[in-house]
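chain below, 135 aa
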Amino acid sequence: MDPWTVSTGIAGFFALALEITKILKQYVDEVNSASADAHTLLVETTALCECLEKFIKFLRGDAISNLPSSSALRLIIAICDEKVRKLHTKLTKFHNSRKLAQRLMWPFDKGEYTETIAFLRHCTQTFGFSITASS
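prediction:
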């Protein structure tokens, strides 16, 4: 997989991650009782977006020749993409609910939230490490 294809694939779920941050920011701003979980998810999603933005620039920049074609990289991109898409779908459904009560209630149980945070951190670390290791 060439670096341009990798960066294009990442750009797709980067756009979804940006939308997730907008939804979460609006929720945190509008719901006075927004839980610490919502704030943490916003921080982790924002960190992932910042890392993805750097990773895309890295892939499209002069350092492209240093990036080896790796099935491990393809796998983590696919896994992160799938998780971000599911998160986006869930938060969009929650955000677009017609019932006010449903829009005010946090849509994650503790286990799902914990798993999501851990996964977002893992993706952020993996992409950050890829930039560092290839530089």
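The radius of gyration is 16 Å. The CA atoms of residues 18 and 119 lie 17 Å apart.
thats it, cya
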